[in-house]
Amino acid sequence: MINIIEVSVRDNNVEQALRVLKKKMQREGIYREMKLRKHFEKPSLRKQREKAESIRRSRKMARKKRERDGM
Hints:
It is built from three helices and no strands.
C-alpha cells in the first residue's frame, strides 16, 4: 500500500513546509522504516524484533487501560 504524503508550501515558506513534512513522516513511522531497511535483517531476527514489539505494544495498551479504569 502506497501512502502519499503531501505538504503545501504557503507564502514561499519552505522551512515551515519542511517542518510539517518531517512531523508527518515521524507520525507515519517512515524514519523508523528507513532505519530498519538500511541494512539487511535476517528473517529470524526480524521475527524476534516483531514479537518483542508486539509484546511491548500489548503491555502498553494494558497499562493505558488500567490507568483509564482507575486502577
